[in-house]
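Summary of Year 1 activities. Much of the first year was spent building the evaluation harness for sequence design. The harness presents a backbone, in tokenized form, and records the residue chosen at every position. We chose the following record to illustrate the format because it has been used consistently in internal testing since the harness was completed.
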């Protein structure tokens, strides 16, 4: 399974980053039992591509990406992979920005809940969903993937089917 880089472009408290990692893994386990962690917090600008996922507890660090934009971060990656960005909104509402390279150095973004981040990045990697589809789903859920009442309920009985005209 691929390891996806995660960049902090705002000052994110360690407990929030650890919550993100735990919730992302829990969400991935819901859709794919026994899935391994696949998110790596990047703490150095000169790091080679990550090969090992980050797991709590984390040691304190100061992100070298503070104040950068997702485009700045993407340029450092040569636009070669999907990644996640924790920003100031992540602290406020428990969401993360998922980023995919676009054409001519552009980027595509979608906001997602912590819980849906890892499984969505994996779906993008294996091409079971396209970024446009993910953006459309997020839009139908109020702008945040993984949030809203329109998602299917899992684990309970299916509603009774009504046959006939009425």
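For this record, the design step produced the sequence shown next.
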């Amino acid at each position: 399974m691929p390891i996806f880089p995660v960049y902090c472009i705002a000052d994110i408290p360690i407990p929030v980053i650890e919550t993100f990692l735990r919730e992302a893994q829990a969400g991935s386990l819901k859709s794919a039992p026994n899935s391994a962690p696949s998110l790596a917090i990047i703490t150095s600008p000169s790091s080679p591509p990550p090969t090992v996922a980050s797991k709590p507890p984390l040691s304190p660090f100061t992100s070298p990406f503070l104040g950068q934009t997702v485009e700045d971060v993407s340029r450092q990656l040569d636009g070669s992979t999907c990644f996640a960005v924790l920003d100031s909104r992540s602290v406020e509402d428990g969401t993360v920005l998922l980023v995919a390279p676009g054409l001519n150095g552009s980027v595509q973004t979608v906001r997602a809940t912590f819980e849906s981040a890892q499984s969505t990045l994996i779906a993008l990697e294996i091409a079971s969903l396209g970024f446009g589809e993910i953006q459309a789903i997020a839009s139908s859920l109020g702008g945040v993937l993984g949030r809203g009442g329109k998602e299917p309920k899992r684990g309970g009985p299916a509603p009774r089917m009504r046959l006939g005209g009425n």
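The chain has five helices and six strands. Quantitative recovery figures across the full test set are reported in Table 2.
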